[in-house]
From TrEMBL:
InterPro entries: Carn_acyl_trans, CAT-like_dom_sf, Cho/carn_acyl_trans, Cho/carn_acyl_trans_2
Signal peptide: none
Catalytic residue positions: 224
Protein name: Choline/carnitine acyltransferase domain-containing protein
Any single GO CC term annotated in Swiss-Prot or TrEMBL for this entry: peroxisome
TM annotation in the entry: none
Domain Choline/carnitine acyltransferase intervals: 10-493
Molecular function GO terms recorded: carnitine O-octanoyltransferase activity
Keywords for this protein: Acyltransferase, Transferase
Family: Belongs to the carnitine/choline acetyltransferase family.
Source organism of the structure: Oppiella nova
Length: 509
């Protein structure tokens, strides 16, 4: 999963600015880390004033997936102050195939942005002075999980130093990647973050990696395993508001303590691992070439228009998505939409299934011209209310997908024959067993965008942001599928939103 940072007027695109800006960003990460450490982060509540589970914030820092031959495990070292001594506070920096580590805390005080800048600048200068790129061990983390588990085990067997380095990386506070590419538009940034030819500068298992481009633009790569998008969105909002408050200029102390130099993490490799790294880089590049990403901001109107008609903003967007897909493919599609269950203890998500009969009937009527505007308006209202009810059911624990997943895993773990339901073709066609053609998620009511690959080969991944005056959409599909086109779906979505506004305008309230 990836996301890009919106551009600020006071941070114009400019080559050579990334280190200073990144240092400021990391200082705000540390402030957020301190809030969680001290348990001072304001509890998150929903619109009904119900508190939401906060345990996912434990896994933003000091968290890493560990590959396994059969299944992965999740390493989480983070502790609050009341839970005991703090976990490692080192930052991992990846640049030009090299890996460095330095501590973000000195004598129980976090480094200032000025001090972080000095450490990052040391790493940047050192890497740029080398005649060749580093070995790029991070590329191994982008391979399939079983292959990476095998290579990781081989790394450990090859040298005890390698195990120490792996522990340093996997338990670290955060990771940052310095990329020499200079994407400008939000679409280019997303494409570089998710599909860029720089897998040697990634440690894909880390829960969060901040990506700093040469021209001062930023993105982030995230592992979805430890937390949901809304957890990291809370931190992102804190950081963006902090940057905006100081207008991107650090005004704190310019003095520097005497700090230890960043440590080069130098893996011991042999010819076999060198070959595996090259294979990983080639495979990653070929895989990324199969994915198409489009990003568009719809500026004709935003949620304020549908709000006048008492239509929930996410319901309205889901109607537009279904209509756009129907216009593109002439049929409906099983759809996943994220519903939060964080009102329950340690809740995460449930599947909201928005491809309901009312939604499909509206899409058909909008396409075949069989209904007049008054009838279409009534259908739009009916479909919108049905989505709200479906979403409410999912959020309140009445969804079916997580329950069915639990039963399926219980059968597997206990050696019980898997029920016929899970083998039925209609279950798969409905999206079961991870076969949703449309995988959709709201990134929030702001202008931050994100993306991830589709769930199935003939499907789409769909991220959307909702604002009063505009919407933003990121759609991805696989180029290898001749039936799908992210760009065509994006175009039809644009037209669908225009047509839906005409229906609303015909029934002014």
């Amino acid at each position: 999963m990836t996301g890009s940072q919106p551009n600020f007027d006071f941070w114009p695109i400019k080559t050579g600015t990334r280190i200073e800006r990144l240092a400021l960003i990391m200082s705000f990460h540390l402030q957020f880390w301190q809030l969680i450490r001290k348990e001072q982060l304001k509890p998150v509540i929903n619109k009904s004033m119900q508190p939401l589970a906060m345990n996912q914030f434990h896994r933003i820092f000091n968290t890493c997936r560990i590959p396994g031959q059969v299944r992965d495990s999740l390493l989480t070292c983070f502790k609050t102050e009341s839970e005991g001594s703090k976990a490692p506070t080192n930052l991992i920096v990846l640049y030009r195939g090299y890996l460095f580590s330095f501590d973000l805390v000195e004598n129980d005080e976090i480094l200032t942005a000025h001090e972080i800048e000095g450490q990052l600048k040391f790493i940047e200068d050192w890497c740029q002075q080398q005649s060749t790129a580093g070995p790029g061990v991070g590329a191994l983390t982008t391979t399939d999980r079983t292959k990476w588990a095998q290579n990781r085990e081989y790394l450990i067997q090859l040298s005890a130093d390698n195990k120490t380095i792996l522990d340093t990386i996997e338990s670290s506070l955060l990771a940052v990647a310095l990329d020499d590419n200079e994407p400008i538009t939000q679409e280019e940034i997303l494409r570089e973050a998710l599909l860029g030819d720089c897998c040697e500068n990634r440690w894909a298992d880390k829960s969060y990696t901040s990506i700093a481009y040469m021209n001062g633009n930023f993105a982030g790569n995230l592992d979805h395993t430890p937390f949901d998008g809304m957890a990291i969105a809370t931190e992102a909002q804190y950081i963006l508001m902090s940057i905006n408050e100081c207008k991107g200029v650090y005004s704190g102390s310019k003095s520097k303590r005497v700090l230890s130099e960043p440590i080069l993490l130098d893996f011991k490799l042999d010819d076999q691992l060198a070959k595996e790294i090259q294979i990983a880089k080639f495979s990653h590049k070929k895989m990324c070439e199969t994915i198409e990403i489009t990003y568009k901001v719809f500026t004709e109107y935003g949620r304020s228009v549908s709000a006048k008609h008492q239509i929930h903003p996410e319901a309205y967007i889901q109607l537009a998505i279904q209509l756009a897909y129907y216009r593109t493919h002439g049929k409906a599609a099983p759809t996943y939409c994220t519903a939060t269950t964080r009102k329950f203890y340690r809740g995460r998500t449930e599947t909201c299934r928005p491809c309901v009969l009312e939604n499909v009937e509206f899409a058909k009527a909008m396409t075949d011209g069989s209904k007049n505007e008054t009838e279409l308006y009534a259908m739009l209202q009916k479909a919108g209310k049905k989505f709200q009810q479906t979403m409410a059911n999912a959020c309140n624990g009445y969804g079916c997908d997580r329950h069915l997943l639990g039963l399926y895993l219980t059968a597997l773990e206990n050696g019980v024959e898997v029920p016929e339901l899970y083998k039925d073709p209609s279950y798969v066609k409905s999206g079961g067993n991870g076969n949703f053609v449309l995988s959709t998620s709201c990134v929030g009511y702001w202008n931050v965008c994100g993306s991830m690959p589709p769930m199935v080969s003939d499907g789409y991944s769909f991220f959307y942001g909702i604002e009063n005056h505009q919407y933003s959409f990121t759609i991805s599909s696989y180029n290898s599928c001749t039936e799908t086109s992210a760009q065509l779906l994006q175009n039809n979505l644009y037209l669908s939103l225009l047509d839906m506004k005409k229906i609303l305008d015909s029934n002014q309230q």
